[in-house]
Structures are given as C-alpha cells and as structure tokens.
Amino acid sequence: MGNLADVEQTASIINNAIRDLPDTFNKNKNEVSQLENEIQDLLHVIEFSSFNAHEGWKLSKQLKKARTKRRTLKNENEQIEPLLSFCKKTRNYLGELDDVIQDIHQVKKNQKNRTYRCRVLEDLQNKF
C-alpha cells in the first residue's frame, strides 16, 4: 500500500500529537523546573556541607542523574516547540478528525468484507 502503511494509524498519530503535545510540553517544563530546584539543592549541599569521598560520589551521581533527565526533557521540548502553535490552532478540529478516523475505520471494515456478484459470467460466481 503506497507510502502510508496504515492510513487509520497515521490519522490517529496526528490526532494524538495535536491533542497531547501541548500538555507534554507543559509537563516537561514543570518537571525541568522541579529538576532545577533539585540540582540547586544538591549544589548547596556540596557547597555548604562536609562529606567523605563516598558521600561525594553519591552526590555527584545524583547531580548527574538530575542533569541528564533535565537535558532529555529540554531536548524533547526543543523538538516540540516548533509544532506548538500548529497544535493549538488545530485543537478545535479534533472532533472532526475523530470522525475522519471513524470513517477510515469503516472503509477498512467494508473493504475487508467486500464481495462481488458476477453480472454476466454467472457460472464463475462459485469461484468467489
């Protein structure tokens, strides 16, 4: 089937992206903010407390984990951001897109159950 392996699946992916990307962007922003506060806590512990090498290593690992997660979320948001205004503008059409997906589903169902009735060569009808 052409370039689109499954038109219904493609339409659903578009629908989900329009619906979910703005919320994902905001959730990521909130989590980045939380992680930045966590990073500041860790940096202040390092700055103002005394610790042995093992404790320093554990603090370093916590800091790395928080910064890696923060970077992942920021990178994701950098990719989402160009789509945000499009998603916000098209959110009003989600109901219509849901209807389109249902129509595609019905067409696929009809195609699966398609039959043919011979018009002239009726003796070939039993071949179907």
Description:
The protein is mostly helical and 128 residues long. It has one domain (7-127). It contains three helices and no strands. Helix 1 (7-48) packs antiparallel against helix 2 (53-90) and helix 1 crosses helix 3 (94-112). The longest helix is centred in the first third of the chain and has 42 residues, at 7-48. The radius of gyration is 27 Å and the shape is elongated.
Indicate the topology.
Blueprint: H1 7-48, H2 53-90, H3 94-112
Please describe the structure with a list of short key phrases separated by commas or semicolons:
3 helices, about 130 residues, elongated, single chain, mainly alpha
List low-confidence stretches. Answer: none
Number of domains: 1
Order of helices and strands: HHH
What is the overall number of helices? Answer: 3
Q: How many extended strands?
A: 0
Note the overall shape.
Answer: elongated
Rg (CA only): 27 Å
Helix content bin: over 70%
What summary fits the major beta sheet?
none
Structural class: mainly alpha
Look at the structure and give the mean pLDDT. 92
Strand content: under 5%
How many angstroms separate the termini? 23 Å
